[in-house]
Amino acid sequence: MERERFVDKIALVTGGANGLGRGMVEQLVKEGAQVAIFDIEDDTMEEVFGGNDHVFCVHCDVRDYDQVQESVQKVIDRYGRIDVLMNNAGICHREPFLECSKEGWLDVMATNLNGEFYVGQAVARTMVELGVKGYIVNTSSNSSRKTIGGITPYCRRQNAYAGDGARAGEVRHSCERDSSRHVENAHSRRDDQRS
Which is nearest to 104 in space by CA: 117, 116, 115, 94? Predict the structure, then answer.
């Protein structure tokens, strides 16, 4: 019998149209979640999840800061909150180091690093504002710890995120402490405004 760890939870998966992201969406749905997907592959999202009442497909290019803000708001408008973010969108340009183009480098950084920040920040702001004690999971890979030929920009992005050796639990607890403080301050400000 499938566990139902995510019943009544709202999850957002970036890059959820295929690959690892698609697997995340499918598993979250199996475990009871309502899932929003951010992706630019509209046809794939529609083909795979179009008839699923538990999935909300949103065209969102995570490289575009304003589009991310609008897309996160669409999820909030539909579900009222986000409990879980699986920050998974990413691309890989296969170019050796000496041949790596500036455009290839910048595209990987814009998608895999900036996009992760844009979505993570936007979702974290909603969690603080709404008092949601949620989870943000930023996916990475072992390419942050070893050099893999032919994918220079991808490896550097992984290292930029995971290079400090922080574990997810440490990051989560740090964010919880920080979010709790902000939530307390936000509630305090609201109470002051009502007085």
Answer: 94
